[in-house]
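[Meeting: bench + compute handoff]

Bench side (C.D.) handed over the final construct sequence. Compute side (W.E.) agreed to return the predicted structure before the next meeting so the bench team could plan truncations. Sequence as handed over:
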Amino acid sequence: MTARRTLASKLPHALAGLALALAALTGCQPLPKEVKPPEPVVVKTPAPDPKLVDLAAALPHKLLAADRTSELQVRLRIDAGQLASAKRPPISVVLVMDSSGSMEGDAIADARQAALALVDSLADGDRLAVVTFDSQSRVLVPSTTITQTTRADARTRVETMTARGTTDLAGGLSLGLGEASRGYLNDGVNRLVLLSDGVPNDDAPLAALAQQAASMRVAVTALGLGLEYNETLLAALAQQTGGKFHFIEDSDQVVAVFRDEVLRLEQVVARNLSLQLLPGPGVSIEGVLGHTTSPTANRGVALALGDLGEATHRDLIVRLRVSPHRAGASLELMDAILGFQDAVVGAGQLERRIFVSAKTSGDAQAIATSRDPEVERQIARALADAATLDAIALARQGQLAAAVATIDRAEPLARTQAKQLDDNELRAQADSLVKLRKALPTLGPAPAPMPAPGQPLAVDAAQPVATMAAPSSAPAEAATVKRSHGRAMRRLQGE
């Protein structure tokens, strides 16, 4: 009996060996002992749209004048609702800090304290990287997930930051984008915060770096410190990536700005907003005040708007040119399409669409009574702010005559509208334009005597025009420029 049991136990092994031998003789591979079915594919269904984002449009007049070309501004408003729960998306932040010689003293000390405050403000599980730039750029803290241990290490590294050398801003931004790529969170908020107080050694690479950040969907928050940085350059970096620009006059304000930035990141309800505008027949889109746009198919434009925080709204003023139409015609002005990623419940990529239309009339009285004063007031303020930014940018490019002409057109218009709308804020903007006009020559390559208001500015065409103006040596004029620019950007950004 025992012998038979032993033989029976060995039989399967013998048969398996025989199968292997036959396979070897015939050149065939043996069948596996067990064929497992493939793992089931699990399709994750996105959560329902939480309906926290809304898109709406408003016109200053419900009726447009018939039979003539019209310049029209449309207000688009993006609204975010209040969160019902405390859930927040994870955050990945890259700090790119100016550590050049001009930061020596209180500025570098305050920048260190701001960076330390940001390290402490981030929650465990968030990501952080710190890059510094002076004559060289270096990664001070490689992108890392925040834990008790890594937080302490990051603080130690930040404490070593000192001021020296020149301003390799492009190198610092390039390294920062590398760290942003390594620490990118597909389901989180990704931000690069750039702080600088001076003019970069070489600004040529910055346009390409801004495009790279935009393609990566990394918004750049640009912070201009003091009175010597190039405000137009830093603002453009923010605009092209959907980020925001802030003017910080005194370095002791940096800590508060960094803490506010982290708070905004924690309250994001929609990420990577992008807006596409498609004009109707006989309509052209001339631009969006205070924003950089790129052309798309069908004569449209697109722009990146970054992230949207809870219980906030963003207003955009779109400039249109409308061809003549007969009285009583219905005008198809444009389609607006807002795309974004839900940052609250995992609803994925979402979209909002609106269609903007108007009617024409030959009745001047009817047109006048179709006014919306609140929208008119907001558009008038935005036009004055846009003129401020345009004038500063032109002066920075050495086009002083064009800059002065921009203000000479905008200031009386703002004053007239302030009277019509009884708007004290618009009056203050008109006064600011007068002060800015006097300060503009400090941005040009060579200050020139200013003509009386309304008089043309003489320019020697034989003299070369610089594309990058030297920092202003007049503190009062520099402060006027920076404050005017900062106020205009803050309002156009919806703050």
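W.E. noted at the follow-up: The radius of gyration is 30 Å. C.D. will use this when planning the next construct.
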